[in-house]
Amino acid sequence: MQAVEARNEWSDNRKNKEKDKLNGVIDRLKEEQQKQLDHVTRVMFRLKSESRTWFLNKTAKSECITRLQQFCLFPRCLFSTQDAIFCALYLKIVHSLQTPNFSTILCFDRVFSDLVYNVASFTENEASRYGRFLYAMWEIILKWHADKPIYDKECANYPGFYMTIRKDAITQLGGNKTETILEFENFRHVCYKWQFKVARDLIQCLESRDYIQTRNTIILLTRMLPYFPKVTHLAQAIEKRVEKVRAEEKDARPDLASLAMAYVVKMKAQKAKLINEENFHDKDDRTKKSEKMKQNEAAAVKRERELSAAKASRESTPQSSDSKKRKMDKNESPVAPSPAAKPANEEERSRSRDRSQDSTGVAAKKKKAPSPSPAKDDKKIKKTRSGKN
């Protein structure tokens, strides 16, 4: 409208016609905008109602994330640049719908883990599209990382940021789990961990001296600027490795050298936007929490050992007494009968004496040999005499 009014060479009638035309365009755009908003509202309502059946509660969260990445994200994000952006925004929508049994933190952690195997299998175009996917992912994450009010509004009370913590991680007896929301400063620690893991994996690919890995790594790094690397010392380490590649491949592989040179130039233009590690996350808070966690773990281990020792002593006490009794019974020598076992009166004593005498008499008779008769002795004498004659 102001541009139309500024046209002094136009007549008032022409200016009015142009204004009417522009007002008609504005009205049609507003009407179309309202239609789009209504359409988006209906679609989001439908997605919200259907999201409860996407990830079943009986399936573990890690298994759900694995299937989602294997069958949905990775095949789709390699088709085209638009599909790569769609995959990143899809994850954001799944998070914003508060989808049950979906862990946003776990999904993002899987995306930024083990890049070495993915990089080695990409073609040149696939590496470019996957780099665009990672660019969109970093854009979402660093938006939450930069502003606590935005994090509290979009992440703090969402089930995707629930963290399962074991109360007694030493025994791991089961049923001892609680879920808590990931705090803002802890999320910043996680973001730094992701930056470090990606930088470590890509540096490993650059040092492999393999043509495919080196080429795909430089393409990924170029596509992820300016959101990665974001930490100063990580950027310096990556730039040093890329410079080394440029110097080594200058004569042998000039295409790699040119890619590395282009990345170094773009990287130097982004140095003003880099952040020191102290500003990216609170290192002191992290060290304090790690020390406190170690102390708690040591105390838990000590307490568990004391409980197990006390339990073992209680169980071993009755067993030791029983074993002692068994040993005494085995090693006992025969003992004379106690006075209580003797006959109590005189009649019993006499009966026992009679029985013993009878038994001794019978035994003596059995042992006594029969004496020879005199007739038999005479016959023997006569025979001996006749034999001498």
Give an account of the 3D structure.
By secondary structure, this protein is mostly helical. 72% of the residues lie in helices and 3% in strands. The model is unreliable at 167-176, 332-344 and 362-369 (pLDDT under 50). The protein has helices at residues 2-6, 12-50, 61-77, 81-96, 104-111, 115-121, 124-146, 148-154, 184-206, 211-224, 232-248, 254-269, 277-280, 283-331, 346-367, 374-388, and strands at residues 162-166, 177-181. The protein starts with a helix and ends with a helix.
Q: Uncertain runs with pLDDT below 50, 5 residues or more? A: 167-176, 332-344, 362-369
The portion of residues forming beta strands comes to under 5%
Strand order of the largest sheet: 1-2
Q: What is the overall number of helices?
A: 16
Count of strand segments:
2
Report the C-alpha radius of gyration, rounded. 48 Å
The biggest beta sheet reads:
2 strands, antiparallel
Query: Approximately how much helix is present in the residues?
Result: over 70%
**Backbone shape:** extended
**Arithmetic mean pLDDT:** 81
Coarse structural class? mainly alpha
Termini separation comes to 181 Å
String of helices and strands: HHHHHHHHEEHHHHHHHH
